[in-house]
Design brief:
It contains nine helices and nine strands. The chain is an alpha/beta fold. The longest helix is centred in the last third of the chain and has 20 residues. The structure holds N-carbamoyl-L-aspartate.
């Protein structure tokens, strides 16, 4: 077994806590699990006998199913919690809820919550590892890891490559995780959004900020398009959604042959992406979803696997 198998993480709360070397080892583990997923059985039961709880206090399709499949492919048992229909309605606190679930015999929790910092809070108070599956507008570390892993699989090395991120930079936890991840993997970022959707401090980070899609994507190796996070926005970023689409939608005319197109999903076709781009030869959006299972297997294994 190579050195990647020896990678041990206590939790995965954010990209901030990962070193460049640990990220490299996670990609290496994901390569190994990606191969497993190509086999007919798709199983590597390294976590047999372990139990993973998925605590989702916010809606999710890809992330929840991807963590569930990742845990099951590794042989772990999986239990689900979703906020609707739970005793949260009866006034139970987040910590009490989590402690009660752990009392049933759980080895790791994967948490998605609208509260920024919820995963860090739980990691301080729970006796088991915590994996952040998205905490409010803060971080979504496994999404950024699977996006860059997808880029690496298609581009080879990430060093010196350019990724343009277009969309709601202000409210997107995916964007913030990428901002922290890019320097650790040698990616160059370009950022593109209406001025109202760029956090003011981001102008000082050294990455170019654009307010027009054309120049932002010109010459980039890949474009990551983000959804408008309407549920977190008090007001539309421009006068109307139609205006947003008119000025910030990524369209065929912006792209050049070979440029990879990524999106973490869910996509609002016709808003951030023109529907004709479904036929763009370099759409890698479903590859992201496929690679997400391998990356999450790598994360769960790095936390729970025995050395
Ligand atoms: C993202 C999220 O939930 O932050 N989606 C995802 O996890 N695949 C992005 C989004 O909701 O727009």
């Amino acid at each position: 077994m190579s050195e990647a198998s020896a990678l041990r993480l206590p939790h995965l709360l954010g990209i901030r806590e990962l070193s460049a070397e640990q990220i490299r080892q996670l990609y290496e583990l994901a390569d190994r699990f990606y191969e497993v997923l190509q086999q007919p059985t798709r199983k590597a039961p390294a976590l047999a006998g372990r139990t993973v709880a998925l605590l989702f206090f916010e809606s999710s399709t890809r992330t929840r199913l991807s963590f569930e499949l990742a845990a099951k492919r590794l042989g772990a048992d999986v239990v689900h919690f979703s906020a609707t229909g739970s005793s949260l309605d009866k006034g139970e606190s987040l910590l009490d809820t989590a402690l009660n679930i752990l009392a049933m015999g759980v080895d790791l929790v994967v948490v998605r919550h609208k509260g920024v910092g919820t995963c860090h809070f739980l990691a301080r108070h729970l006796p088991v590892p915590v994996v952040n599956a998205g905490d409010g507008t803060h971080e979504h570390p496994t999404q950024a890891l699977l996006d860059t892993y997808t880029l690496q699989r298609h581009l080879g090395s990430l060093e010196g490559r350019t990724l343009t991120i277009v969309g709601d930079l202000f409210h997107s936890r995916v964007a913030l995780s990428h901002l922290i991840l890019a320097p650790k993997v040698g990616l160059r970022l370009r950022l593109c959004a209406p001025p109202t959707l760029v956090p003011p401090l981001w102008y000082r980070l050294g990455w170019p900020v654009y307010h027009r899609v054309g120049p932002a994507v010109e010459g980039a190796d890949a474009i990551l398009v983000l959804r408008m996070q309407r549920e977190r926005q008090a007001f539309p970023p421009l006068a109307s959604w139609e205006e947003y689409a008119r000025f910030y939608q990524v369209r065929l005319e912006h792209l050049r042959p070979g440029q990879l197109l990524l999106h973490p999903g869910p996509i609002n076709w016709g808003v951030e992406l023109h529907p004709s781009l479904q036929a763009w030869p370099e759409v890698r959006i479903l590859d992201q979803v496929t690679h997400g299972v391998a990356i999450r297997m790598a994360v769960l294994y790095a936390i729970l696997g025995s050395p």
